[in-house]
Write a structure and sequence with these properties.
Strand order of the largest sheet: 8-7-6-5-4-3-2-1-14-13-12-11-10-9
Structural class: mainly beta
Largest sheet: 14 strands, antiparallel
Number of strands: 14
Distance between the termini: 45 Å
Helix content: under 10%
Radius of gyration: 18 Å
Number of domains: 1
Shape: globular
Order of helices and strands: HEEEEEEEEEEEEEE
């Protein structure tokens, strides 16, 4: 009986340390659904873990099957680790890793075999935009591009994220969180709509 009480106590303790929230987004090109993206936020002790997995199939100068995987760990008010992998037709198109020590970070682009140093702390990354509205935030680090991007509130729960290529992505929120993201892509506007 004593072992049962200890086991129940340990299970309760581990459950109280780990909570999760998952959101799902349909990926649309025009009015056609081309894929799905899921993002999960979980808490483990002082760390917040984010994981995104998206899959889409579309035609753009030939048939494309795209998989997108992104992870991020934030402890307190600083990113510890982030990683993004983009796979097109079973070939890795890009793979980036961000390692942070609190006051600085190293950004590694595996496919380009390039490394850069960031000489300041990173509080959050773009993956978090899918889980919470960025009230009061005017820049955010892109774990894919390895740069801080300008984030602009444009009113009515909408935010413009200014990309390094000059394009702009629009994030839309209501009281339930992120409802959609419109991505200004080179071949078409792609919309992620919360299910």
């Amino acid at each position: 009986m004593r072992h049962l009480i200890i086991l129940i106590g340990l299970m309760t303790l581990s459950c109280s340390c780990l909570t999760a929230q998952q959101l799902s987004f349909s990926i649309l090109k025009g009015d056609k659904r081309i894929g799905v993206q899921r993002v999960t936020q979980s808490q483990s002790g002082t760390e917040t873990h984010y994981k995104l997995k998206g899959d889409a199939s579309f035609w753009a100068m030939g048939k494309k099957n795209l998989s997108f995987i992104s992870t991020c760990i934030i402890e307190g008010n600083a990113v510890k680790h982030a990683e993004v992998k983009e796979i097109v037709n079973d070939k890795i198109r890009s793979h980036t890793i961000l390692e942070c020590d609190g006051n600085s970070a190293t950004f590694i682009s595996e496919c380009d075999k390039e490394t850069s140093e960031i000489d300041r702390s990173i509080a959050t990354t773009t993956i978090t935009l899918l889980m919470q509205e960025p009230v009061g935030i005017d820049e955010i680090f892109s774990e894919r591009h390895g740069a801080f991007l300008r984030l602009e509130s444009i009113g009515n729960g909408e935010y413009a994220l200014h990309m390094p290529n000059g394009r702009t992505n629009i994030y839309s929120y209501n009281e339930e969180g992120c409802q959609s993201v419109t991505v200004d892509h080179w071949f078409a506007n792609i919309e992620f709509v919360r299910n």
